[in-house]
Amino acid sequence: MSRSAGIVGAGQAGIVLAAELLRAGFRVTLYTDRSPEDYLADRGRPTACLFGEQVVRERELGLNFWDDTAPSIERIHLDLCAPDRLVLFSVAAPMRLPALAVDQRLKFAHGLRELATRGASTRVDAISVEKLDTLAAEHDVTVVTAGHRSFGPTLFERDPKRSLHARPRRNLFMVNIRDYDLAAGAHHEHLKFSFIPGVAEIFWVPFLDKDAGVCRSVLVEAVPGGAADRFTDVGSAEEGVDVLRGLARDLLPWETEFLAPAAPTSPVTWLSGAITPTVRKPVARLPSGRGVLGLGDAVVLNDPLAGQGANNATRMARFFAERLAARGDRPFDADWLRGQFDEFWAYGRFVNDFSNALLEPLAGFQQDLMIAASRHPEIGSAIFDGFGDPAGLFPWFVEPAAARAFLRRHRVSRADVLRYKIGVAGKIVGHQLSKRLKAPG
Ligand SMILES: Cc1cc2nc3c(=O)[nH]c(=O)nc-3n(C[C@H](O)[C@H](O)[C@H](O)COP(=O)(O)OP(=O)(O)OC[C@H]3O[C@@H](n4cnc5c(N)ncnc54)[C@H](O)[C@@H]3O)c2cc1C
């Protein structure tokens, strides 16, 4: 008799885990608080761009229903800006594998329907802790993939050793837009990042929206209290786009024409809020004493600055499906599950270290890497491939000596870096002079 898995939550982790376990011969029951129709009628969900091997894995699992309609993202264009309306330099480079950003309402609705055709049992039910205990008794293994909100902070205990933050580091605003002027905006055919250190990181993501089709999903990661932190009182998508236009006028004036005709894709495709990055203990003990495993945001929650949540949910689902399948007839007891999570963490910590590194100001050696990347696209590609596989950034993205060795391997000397920096300094001086000349009097 095949083993049975109960999966609570049909989001990124739940859908992928169910597809993996069905393939491995498990009997799978998916408990979801939303039916496919509910998902399709729901408000907008996060951008959730998948990178690298995660896109490949969804394809291998036959969950790639949008290959012909979603824009294939092959390059990233990053502008590193000064707060006084200047692009200091840009890094533009291809990624090894294309990224893909598809509306999660489509993904989860289609995923649920598809898994039912493959033999998964799907139950529409908002699972409580009490019900979870019943499920844990019914299944050989029960996995909670219900995101970070549903069971609150109590079910999975915070892991203080793996959690660095006690409060959010950014205030977030996301809106999906259409009708922008692609001809007027530079580099918006690619995934575009506008970083203003100390102020905000803004992501312009080619995106497939459930209603509008190909559009841009714009995510603003504002440093609290800074010049871009102006979305907390936004009450509608329209208002949010207006505030975004104001932000562009003040900080990124070269984006104003692109945004001038833009409108939200619908009244519900926007989000605002803030996330406290938190790692939780992976196994929760229920009132009966039974244990359940958590995956995805339920146990590893990062700020979306590095775009890792959905990617990591996919990696975790794959990793655990392989381990559960290899377990044979032996029990999925709490100690064994914890041990598997520790093994996952040998990789997973890179995801968190990368996400946490981006929340901090760039160190001098990281500035050197970025400035070198602006002149050497292969360095840009190595950095951008980190979104698909953060482990590939270590140690050279976080350790000064490793960064210097990395640059040497790419034939970039200290003198080269100095020359590039002098070029940027000249740009700043030119900008200041032209501002003075333009100033009245
Ligand atoms: C603004 C923003 C932008 C983002 N951009 C990116 C990005 O570009 N790339 C990236 O990788 N990540 C991104 N993320 C993060 C990403 O969206 C999440 O990390 C990812 O969706 C987590 O997957 P999950 O399966 O853990 O949870 P979810 O995808 O949230 O799925 C959980 C599901 O469980 C269901 N559920 C909840 N409670 C219950 C219950 N009690 N019973 C049954 N079902 C329940 C819910 O309906 C939900 O659909 C972004 C996040 C935000 C906020």
Automatic annotation (TrEMBL):
Domain Styrene monooxygenase StyA putative substrate binding per the UniProt entry, residue ranges: 154-257
Top-rank taxon, per record: Bacteria
Protein name, as recorded: FAD-dependent oxidoreductase
Species: Pseudonocardia eucalypti
Lineage: Bacteria, Bacillati, Actinomycetota, Actinomycetes, Pseudonocardiales
